Amino acid sequence: MKKYDVFISFSSKDLKYVRQLMASLQYQGITFWDYSNDIEQIELGENLPDYLFKQIDNSKYFIPLISRDSVDKDSGRFTRLEVEYILKNAGQSSKNVIPLMIKNKCPRCLEGPFKSFENKIYLHMNFIDEKGYEEAIGRICEKVYERNIHKKYKPIIETHERMPFWKKFKEESFQFTHSNAAHVELMIILSLFNTKFQQEAWEEAYFLIRYFLDSCAYKIPESAGGKNRLFYPYIVKGVCEQILGDWDQAEQTFKQAGRIRRGHRYVHGGLGGVYSDRGDYEKAIDHYRMALEQCKTDNTDEKINYATILIKADNPVPVTLKTEILQYTLQIIPGHDWYTVLKLQAVILFLDEQYREAEQKFNQLDNMRDTMDEDAEIYYYYCLLYLDKKDEAFQRLISKGCYESNPELLAFKGKQLFRFREFDQAIQIFEKLNTDPETVTRETLIIQARIFRQLENHEKMKELCKRVISDAGLSLPQTKKDFYFTGFANYLLDELERARYDFERSEAFDDYYNQFPV
C-alpha cells in the first residue's frame, strides 16, 4: 500500500476548505490520501473503517481538521472514528498529530475524542485571509519537512499589478461541485500559471490559462455553460492575449466574458486596454469611462486608467479626478502598482506646467526602476528642458537605451540630438532609419535634410528632399503630416508655390510655415 506524508481527517461539510488545503499541500510536494482520486478510491467490498485505519497507518502525519461539523456526532461520524483510532492505537506521544482548527467554523467546545486536543491545537487556519492562510501552510510544511534541508516551503506568488483580480479569480473555482482530485489538479495549473505570469513568461502563461479553461470544461461541465459559468479566467486570458499583442483575439475574449457578466467593469477595462493599444483612443475612452461608472467604490484602477487614456488622447482630465489622483498615497492604496500611480501624478503635474513638482515625481520613478518606460522618459526629458536643465536632459538622452527600442523613439532621439547640434550623432541615426524601407518616413528624410542644410551640404539636402517628393518607396501624400513634410521638401528645394500648396493642404499653415519664412 502506498505511503503518504499526511492523512487529513475532515467532515464532508468542510470540503470547500479541504480542497484548498489539499491543493496547497500538493503544490508544496506533500502527499496525502484522497478518496476522490480514481487511483486511490476505496475499492468495492472493502470494510470502510478498516480501510481508513490502514491509510492512517501508512501516513507519517495525522491532520484532524476541526470544525463545528467535524466534532458533530452526525456530520463528524467518520472524523470521530479516525481521531479515536489515532488516540487509542497510536497514541499522541508516538504519532505526529497536527490538529488544525478552521477559524471561522470553530466549535463551541471540543467533545468526545476531540477533547484531547483542547490545549494542543497546532494552528487556527484562516481560509479567508490569504496572507494568514499562506503563513499557516508554511508552518505545516516546516512541521512535515522536519530536518529535510532539500525541501523548503514555496510561498504563493503575490498578485501581479496587471491582475488585481487574482484573488477573485482563485475564489471563483471553489463555487463548483467537483472532486477533490479535480480541484487539486486545477489549483496546481493556476499556481503554475501564476508563476509564469509573474516571471513574464507570457507564452507559457497563455498556454496554461487556456489549459485551465479546457480542463474546467472537461472536469467541471457546469463551468462551461449555465448561470454559474466561469468569468475571471476569461478576463485573465484576455489580459495574456493583450500582452502578447493579439488584440483581435483579446477583444473577442473580453466580449465573451461580457456575455457572461454584462457590463462588468473588468470587461470594459479589458476592452479599453485593447483599444488603447490599437491607438483607437475614442473607443478606449468610452470603455474606461463605462468601467468607472460601473464601479462606485474601490475604483482606483478605473480612475487611473481613465485619466491615463484622456492624457494619451490629448483630452483634458477633469479637475476633480486630477486632484484625487495627485492626493493618492501608498497608505491609501496599499499593494497597488505604485509605479503607474506615480508616473500618472508626474505627467499630470507636467501638463499643468508644475515642472518642479513633476521633476520630483520623475526622480522618484527613476529610483524605483533601473529603466523607466519610454513615455515616462520622454516626459522627464521635456521637464528638464523646461526647467532649463539642458545638460542633464542631454545626458539622459544619450545614456538611456529605451530610445533604441523602436524606430519612432530612435527618430525622437535623432531630432533631439539635432536640437543640441550634435549633427554627427544625429546623422548616424537618420542614415540607419532612411536606408531601411521599413523605417524610412517623410519626416525622417526631412530632418536629415535639415541637418545637411545646417552643414551647408546642399547636394545631400536636395537628394533627400527629392526622395520625399518622388521616392517610389513612399506612398502618395494622404495625411496632414504627409502634406506638411512634402511641403517642407518643396520649400527646401525653393519650390515656393508648391510648398505653399502642400502647407495649406496640411491645415497647419500658420503653425509650421511661419517657422520657416520664405
Task: Summarize the topology.
Elements: E1 4-9, H1 15-27, H2 48-57, E2 59-66, H3 77-90, E3 96-97, E4 100-102, E5 123-125, H4 130-145, H5 166-172, H6 180-198, H7 202-219, H8 232-243, H9 247-260, H10 265-278, H11 281-294, H12 300-312, H13 319-326, H14 338-351, H15 355-368, H16 374-386, H17 390-399, H18 407-419, H19 423-434, H20 442-454, H21 458-470, H22 480-492, H23 496-505, H24 509-512
Parallel strand pairs: 1-2, 2-3, 2-4, 4-5
Helix content: 55-70%
Unreliable spans: 513-518
H/E topology pattern: EHHEHEEEHHHHHHHHHHHHHHHHHHHHH
β-strand amount:
under 5%
> What integer is the average pLDDT?
85
Number of E-type strands: 5
Shape: elongated
Main sheet overview: 5 strands, parallel
Kindly provide the radius of gyration, computed on alpha-carbon positions and rounded to a whole number of angstroms. Answer: 32 Å
State the secondary-structure class.
mainly alpha
Question: N-to-C terminal Cα separation, in Å?
Answer: 95 Å
Helical stretch tally: 24
